[in-house]
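Regression test case RT-17, inverse folding.

Input:
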């Protein structure tokens, strides 16, 4: 599975979760939003780490 297919597959799951979240109490919706934001932050961090250091020796 290519990265694009994987992202598309994962975004399908995210869409399902968001659709189902509307039926949850507001407190649980906020919790799901915090989890999703944490997952996005972690994904971006992992991508920047995998890119390696920049020519100046600092990571991007």
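Golden output:
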């Amino acid at each position: 599975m290519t990265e694009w297919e994987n992202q598309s597959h994962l975004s399908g799951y995210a869409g399902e979760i968001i659709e189902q979240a509307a039926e949850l109490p507001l407190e649980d919706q906020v919790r799901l939003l915090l989890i999703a934001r944490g997952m996005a932050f972690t994904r971006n961090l992992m991508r920047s780490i995998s890119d390696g250091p920049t020519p100046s020796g600092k990571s991007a």
